[in-house]
Specification:
- The structure holds two protein chains of two kinds.
- Chain A is an alpha+beta fold.
- Chain A has four domains: about 5-110, Sulfite Reductase Hemoprotein, domain 2 (Alpha-Beta Complex), CATH 3.90.480; about 140-290, Sulfite Reductase Hemoprotein, domain 1, CATH 3.30.413; about 305-400, Sulfite Reductase Hemoprotein, domain 2 (Alpha-Beta Complex), CATH 3.90.480; about 415-550, Sulfite Reductase Hemoprotein, domain 1 (2-Layer Sandwich), CATH 3.30.413.10.
- Chain A is about 35% helix and about 15% strand.
- In chain A, helix 16 crosses helix 18 (about 540-550).
- Helices cover about 25% and strands about 30% of the residues of chain B.
- In chain B, strand 4 and strand 5 (about 75) form a beta hairpin.
- The interface of A and B includes residues 420 and 482 of A.
Chain lengths: ~550, ~100
């Protein structure tokens, strides 16, 4: 993985010292809250319902075991013993004291982490496929380019005061696990006419109150032109994006109001003006330098299977079921990618205690090369597990309470913090996730239902990705009472789709029953091998609507 | 139940904790200790007092919110204020024993 050079170290250390001074000045009265607020937000520090909240960047979701242990230490020392992994592959601490935050940032800087650009109208932490570099279906390793974008966008003077926040996601695989079509810019790695790697550039996707699927503005962008082209897109946005209306300020509004053709023309014009005859290119040496950080580790020549693994798979149903959901195909024979569910039945999606973080760090070293990934679905990943060690890993995870065999199933729910923590929320998300998870606690039933993505947001800002949930749930406030609107058929993958609203919203008491009705309708209509989404696409909304509102 | 009674709340500067303005101008973590404004004029006076605490760097973002009077003390009528008073409903161990009915589902 990438390691800080002297410039990175200096930049982050200077920022810590600067923020320490700002906190001191705030406490001493030299800065008012109005003056201090934008400064703390630039360092990821929000003020939520009950306390401050610190959002720490995890670049493209990649963590070392050492970093994970430091996150655990921070949770234990400065917070209430836990952290919350988010849909942007970051971690949030819900209870830090203001005057402790500079110390927390210093502790983070020691392990090459920070909270810069986790808030504000700038280019936020770049997100990526959590299986980057190890996925069997991968065309090229997106971490290389995510890191290049990270360095380019960090404190970029031209793009530090955009009309609104800006999110870039990147995947190197045809199976999109990074939801690139619902980001401000989505990058999908593809082969060019000569087979050389490049990017399909998708612009103007997003969720929030105006959900949109992004448009492809470039079918193929050669790798060396990446930053110049991103710069052209950002310049058009910076110049023409609306600054008069917060709700119309994201690039998706500009793209969709301008139209795909005209927006593309503007970007290409800007790009051509910048590029002239010779498009500005990534320096070849720099690309190679960054790529060197992401060289595959020293994989051993290991068997895909052993008699012991076969025996465990045949004889231990619980283990076999876990393998079915948690294990993904690795590009290196003999290895597996393992997703660790942070969705225990009835638990809080994405929460991890300090002890759990330490346990995952230990396992990453014992069963891999000390690396961990955070997924946008609020789970963790061990990217390099020898297949012959799967049973031992499972036993260790089970002992740590981290072996729930539900990845990709109905209880693997994305939920935003909602009204339990968030200043913007209209309704609670987490208790709904917990109730659904408990209702479907029976793993036999979950496995029978199959692939199903339930995503819950506590307000229209859609941090819980409800628009792209197979079943999406949106909390709304109806005269002071929490209600929940349901959408069906959303999809965050390469076949991205926005969900359709079923009809009137459901009370907090009725929403889990509604989910059960939806699932029963699917079971009743599904044909052999059909996932929920397949059935929905085949039969449409009508049967679901009839079942949901039959009594009304 | 419609109520015109209000209590003034804010977040404490140093730790962000939810606090309520008391009748003698201090700040308490207990909602029941909050000064009860029975009309708009009193609420405005309390808010003016709260603004002085902002200047004094004790609290951030004060505002008044409605409460209903109940035998066990004032009760927030909005879910958001119920949750602020009692703590996250999903982490009872971090909640406060306020005597306020928790925002039970």
């Amino acid at each position: 993985m990438y390691r800080y050079d002297e410039f990175d170290h200096t930049l982050v250390a200077e920022r810590v010292a600067q923020f320490r001074d700002q906190v001191n000045r705030r406490v001493a009265g030299a800065l008012t809250e109005d003056e201090f607020k934008p400064l703390r937000l630039m360092n990821g520090l929000y003020l939520q319902l009950h306390a401050y909240m610190l959002r720490v960047a995890i670049p493209y979701g990649v963590l070392s075991a050492t970093q994970m242990r430091r996150l655990a230490h921070i949770a234990r020392t400065y917070d209430k013993g836990y952290g919350h992994f988010t849909t942007r592959q970051n971690i949030q601490y819900n209870w830090p004291n203001l005057e402790d935050v500079p110390d927390i940032l210093e502790e983070l800087a020691e392990v090459e982490m920070h909270a810069i650009q986790t808030s504000g109208n700038c280019i936020r932490n770049v997100t990526a496929d959590q299986f980057a570099g190890v996925a069997a279906d991968e065309f090229d390793d997106p971490r290389v380019y995510a890191e290049i974008i990270r360095q380019w966008s960090t404190l970029h003077p031209e793009f530090s005061f955009l009309p609104r926040k800006f999110k870039i996601a990147i995947t190197g695989a045809p199976n999109d696990r990074a939801a690139v079509k619902v980001h401000d810019i989505g990058l999908r790695m593809v082969a060019g006419p000569d087979g050389a790697p490049g990017f399909e550039v998708i612009v103007g996707g997003g969720q929030g109150r105006t959900p949109m699927i992004g448009y492809v503005v470039r079918d193929y962008l050669p790798v060396p032109q990446l930053l110049a082209y991103l710069e052209a897109v950002l310049r058009v946005y910076n110049q023409l994006g609306r600054r008069d209306n917060l709700y119309k300020a994201r690039i998706k509004i500009l793209v969709h109001e301008t139209g795909r053709e005209e927006f593309t023309r503007l970007v290409e014009e800007e790009f051509a003006a910048m590029a002239g005859e010779n498009p500005p290119a990534l320096p070849g040496g720099e690309l190679a330098r960054i790529r060197a950080y992401f060289q595959p580790p020293a994989y051993a020549d290991l068997p895909a299977s052993t008699p012991e693994l076969d025996l465990a798979l045949a004889g231990n149903r619980t283990f076999a079921r876990w393998v079915k959901t948690a294990v993904a195909e690795h590009k290196q024979p003999g290895y597996a990618i393992v997703t660790i569910s942070l969705k225990p039945i009835g638990g809080i999606p994405g929460d991890a205690s300090a002890d759990e973080m330490d346990a995952v760090a230990d396992l990453a070293e014992r069963f891999g090369f000390g690396e961990i990934r955070v997924t946008h679905e609020q789970n963790l990943v061990l990217p390099d597990v020898p297949r012959q060690d799967l049973f031992a890993l499972w036993q260790s995870l089970d002992a740590a309470g981290l072996a729930t065999a539900n990845v990709g199933l109905v209880s693997d729910i994305i939920a935003c913090p909602g009204l339990d923590y968030c200043n913007l929320a209209n309704a609670r998300s987490i208790p709904i996730a917990q109730e659904i998870s408990q209702r479907f606690a029976d793993l036999d039933r979950q496995h029978d239902i199959g692939d199903l993505k339930v995503k819950i947001s506590g307000c229209i800002n859609a941090c819980g990705h409800h628009h792209v949930g197979h079943i999406g749930i949106l909390g709304v406030d109806r005269k002071g009472v929490e209600y929940y609107q349901v959408t069906l058929g959303g999809d965050a993958t390469e076949n991205a789709a926005l969900g359709d609203i079923t009809g009137p919203s459901f009370s907090g008491e009725a929403i889990t029953d509604a989910v059960e009705t939806i699932i029963a309708t699917y079971i009743g209509h599904r044909e052999d091998g059909e996932r929920f989404l397949d059935t929905y696409r085949r039969i449409g909304m009508k049967p679901f609507k009839e079942a949901l509102y039959a009594a009304h | 139940m419609a109520s015109t009674h209000q209590i003034v709340t804010a977040n404490r500067l140093r730790d962000g904790a939810v606090v309520y303005l008391t009748a003698d101008g201090r700040w308490s973590e207990t909602l029941a200790c909050g000064a009860l404004a029975e009309d708009k004029a009193t609420a405005a006076d309390l808010l003016a007092q709260a603004e002085r605490s902002v200047t004094d760097r004790l609290v951030v973002g004060p505002y008044a919110f409605p409460v209903a009077l109940a035998p066990e003390g004032p009760q927030p009528t909005q879910k958001r204020e119920q949750i602020r008073a009692a703590g996250p409903t999903v982490h009872p161990q971090f909640g406060r024993d306020t005597g306020i009915a928790r925002a039970a589902r």
